[in-house]
Amino acid sequence: MKETTLKQIAEALGISITTVSKALKNYPDVSEKTKKSVLELAQSLHYTPNSFAVNLRTKESRTVGLIIPEVVHHFFSNVINGIIAEAEKNGYLVIILQSNESLELEKKQVELLINKRVDGIIMSLSNDSNDEQHIKEILKREIPLVQFDKISKFILSSKVVINDQKAAFEATEHLIKKGCKKIAHIRGPVNPQNAIDRFLGYKKALEQYNIPFDYNLVYTCKNVTFEEGKLFASQIVKEQPDVDGIFVITDLVAVGVLSYFNEHHIKVPNDIKVIGFSNWFMSQVITPKLSTVDQPSYEMGVASFHLLLEEMNCRKELIPFAPRTIELPTNIIERETTL
Amino acid sequence: MKETTLKQIAEALGISITTVSKALKNYPDVSEKTKKSVLELAQSLHYTPNSFAVNLRTKESRTVGLIIPEVVHHFFSNVINGIIAEAEKNGYLVIILQSNESLELEKKQVELLINKRVDGIIMSLSNDSNDEQHIKEILKREIPLVQFDKISKFILSSKVVINDQKAAFEATEHLIKKGCKKIAHIRGPVNPQNAIDRFLGYKKALEQYNIPFDYNLVYTCKNVTFEEGKLFASQIVKEQPDVDGIFVITDLVAVGVLSYFNEHHIKVPNDIKVIGFSNWFMSQVITPKLSTVDQPSYEMGVASFHLLLEEMNCRKELIPFAPRTIELPTNIIERETTL
DNA sequence: TTGTAGGCGTTATCAG
DNA sequence: CTGATAACGCCTACAA
Question: Residues near A118 by Cβ (< 8 Å), separated by ≥ 6?
């Protein structure tokens, strides 16, 4: 099927391309009569503007890019959900790229999006990201940018986050209030700001409740997987048999911990209590049900797109935009692992 | 930062745009000397071709569209994973749209992608889709199309599927071989071909093993959710107390079933056995661990993109392409719910 | 080896 | 109210 163009309509009607274009965009300076005939013909020919040409003329693609570490991930897939829903409502399409937690890939993907000339970029950094040259490149090109969840403090862009330190503090405090005296922490990798903040929140809670902090009780994930959860659980039982509570960086890992405990008949919450982070769906269906920190993922997606949209609109109107940070609330969900 | 164009390079070097263009594309009819100077300047100015202009000229966007029912879904997110990884390797970007299992949304999204002039479309139909006018529109526009998982038989396009009927047969057979005499089926919604096929596989297995088929043992999901699993589990216990096995359309629903049984102290697998479908991650971490049918999701994504790529290449070279169907293998995973 | 010219389809400006 | 013209940035016959 051949695509219909303005030219074809113009020729068929014996008028100029200009007039057709104006008629279709409902300009006031076109007679009702021609407007009507143009509209009718356009409809019957299923005319839709060639977006390639429109992009070239208007210099915008009505497309935004999204780079996230992992798609198969309860938290991130919910964020995607929020972003694409909100984008679609506002006439934008979303190109999704997965960095696989690799800085190298992330760099390439930023380049791809820049070359694609997306109107804006939303991203959450990979665990590998300890260098932000590529992100600075986005700013240098004056492409609107929003960071969410795993962000870099050193990049001046809008951000959508939770208060990881506070949330971690509350999670640890929750364990303390449930009677835990010796609390281990399975933390995230060394780079991500949120892993650092959660660790700091854990530490602060201990201090505040006069529980001595001990580095030997901190276990550091490399890959943040279910398997690591099992591994660290086994290490904790061996190395620190009197630990009675664990605060885990994220539910996936916490589920690994529970899995190990179940297999080795270690009673949760009686022998040891566990609290996770993020409120993955499976946390409410496993046995025992996992206590965790609820994190508004869909809402983070929506908020991220809104911030981006605001910046994109400012850029278009050439009015200056000051990056903003939106902090979303979290809350402790008590289930069976901390009863 | 102002974008660099061929024109700028040409002017700076005092040569024509054509020569610059050729030099950058390494045409043989440009002297080494000019080629070198062009390349150097282009690099130092960080020249990248304006993709809008390239799109317009070449009439391709190097972008494909993907429409799926749900992003927050173990199976679909794995498919996405496979598609975007493979697309990126081949120089394509992927726009993802979520139909939310709604035909209306799906129709709009097809239109969006057509208007965006993506080079190809990959899709899995929503549960609502009982009308395929919009899909036919894709074919009419001669846009390469691949359907996967939830497909329409009536659309002549490439397809990537599993043999749902066979897989369901094997799942039901598995229950029979484990001693089940009265097997219920919680099936998917009425429209999707794969729900129909799985139902047929279930029925066929009963026939083959001389177990009378009874419509009262078939429960039909509307939304395919965890909650529906719980609901149907309660109905089954009440209405059909002697059912000793259940074959469930998908793991998410099966987990709902198990959840109800756990809460009501109905012993699985002793009182009743359960088998799911799709091998969601959580199936291996719940108690008891869910037996299921493994379905190669990532591979389906990869295969889908490959088929699409093949068709896109044919279209470009103007050589005819005959749609193909790829069927991927499945296999039963025995865990604790059918011991 | 280099450059000219035309065109991809749309939009904006400005003159009639 | 209508239309001619240029421009967006790139590509590619074809000419020189």
Answer: A61, A63, A64, A65, A95, A143
